[in-house]
Amino acid sequence: MKMKSLIGDRAFYKHLIAVAAPLVLQQLITTSVQLVDNIMVGKLGESAIGSVSIVNQLYFVVILITFGAMGGAGVFSAQYFGSKNFGKLKQTFRFKILIGLLIAVVSFIVFSLFGENLLRLFTDNPVTIKGGLEYLNIAKWSAFPWIISVAISNTFRETGITKPLLKVSVVAIATNTILNFILIFGLLGFPALGIAGAAIATLISRFVEMSLSVLLLKKRGSAFNTQITQLFHIDKKVLFAVIIMALPLTINEALWSTSQTVFYQAYSTRGDSALAAMSITGSISQLVFVTFGGISTAVAVLVGNALGNNQLEEAKDNAKKLIAFSVFIAIIAGMILFLLSFFIPELYNVPNAAKQIAEFNIRVNAIFIPIYSFNIALYFTLRSGGDMKSTIMMDAGYMWVLPVPVALGLAYFTSLPVIYMFLIVSMLDIPKMIFGISRYRKGHWIKNLALDSDIE
Q1: Which residue from 208, 147, 132 is spatially nearest to 176, judged by alpha carbons?
Q2: d(CA 247, CA 72)
Q3: From CA 195, how far away is CA 364, in angstroms rounded?
Q4: Which of 170, 172, 176 is nearest to 201 (CA)?
Q5: Which of 185, 302, 422, 449 is the right S-S partner for 318, CB 3.0 to 4.6 Å?
Q6: What is the pLDDT of residues 182-221, one digit of tens each?
Q7: Which residues does 434 contact at the CB level (< 8 Å), separation at least 6?
Q8: Residue 354, class by beta-carbon neighbours within 10 Å (0-12 exposed, 13-18 middle, 19+ buried)?
Q9: Residue ranges of the domains in the chain?
Q10: For residues 81 and 97, is the Cβ–Cβ distance under 8 A?
Q11: Contact, 286 vs 334, CB < 8 A?
Q12: Spatial contact of 213 and 148, defined as CB atoms under 8 Å apart
């Protein structure tokens, strides 16, 4: 492959920045505020940050399942928009709302009935479990407004509209941050609610985000907006095609997110310091991992829209350039993350052991982020053309065949410190990259679903 073919012209990068930059900025702001939230909870001590991080890890599974289910419809959303088929674009949006509500109801029931049992998978510390239940019993309501916001924002991104979403996020996260300060520490005459205050702040901010998203939908979403009375009006052929696409993607995301939770559980065997360190590692690493969201959006628009418009060669060319660009940006992001590892962990009120673990793990992420970014760009490229077989094999399939057994083996059959467990698991992204390249080169993803799906 010639180096020149990996570099786009000025128009390409102008389009790329226009599509991806608002989302990256939005996620950077969100992540920065989440880091502040994490530090605020960290001021309450090691048990408090452990409680919140366990609940967030459980919700991570719900989030990824939601993204998987909606992502299946999103593949069609991008291509239907590219082919100007707005009637079926509306139907894919309706599917997102319905499947999101179903996931929210199921997660609410599971957390209501089995919340304590799930927390005990990670810790036997009664203080951590009590704090986790206090947070979970409030936070579990936030899934309902959140899924509405996600369905709307994802569809906007798939149709190339990203700038207004930044404004919505800024207001929502500002609300969350201000309420966190007030409710966690008891400012302006409010009682100091601690962990419960953090949960209440999150819940209120989710409703604010949903309200603004609905207003944006009415103002700018005419291409896919739908009446509530039309919510169940989905053509059977469209519904069948979306389910065929969404089901394997949902299963993939469920398995992948569960694998990440298994990793977290494996690391938790090394004690509360390890739990706190993993929470710190994740919060700080997300400051540069925000580039991943830009990659996914750029692929959906620059590759997915091109495929939907039957511009297959342009889609191939865009994919190569996006993959190369994602690695370049990741190298810069890795350098920034490495520098951050020297001072941000010191802001937490946790034992030195937890800080040292976090510092090491953050540096591991800094070194491996170009590989992570490469794999993510490959994954979304394969997904943009509906190559679900390859995405499952590369993502969840690979995780459960190699990294998960390795992590559990290290956790329960060795006394290896958590830093080396984390390093070994991270290194397993290298063979994943090699496997992903082989699937990419087969070219099964290069197809126009709007034509090939036979649902026109």
Answers
A1: 208
A2: 7
A3: 30
A4: 176
A5: 302
A6: 998 888 888 889 889 989 998 999 999 999 999 999 888 7
A7: none
A8: buried
A9: 3-452
A10: no
A11: no
A12: yes
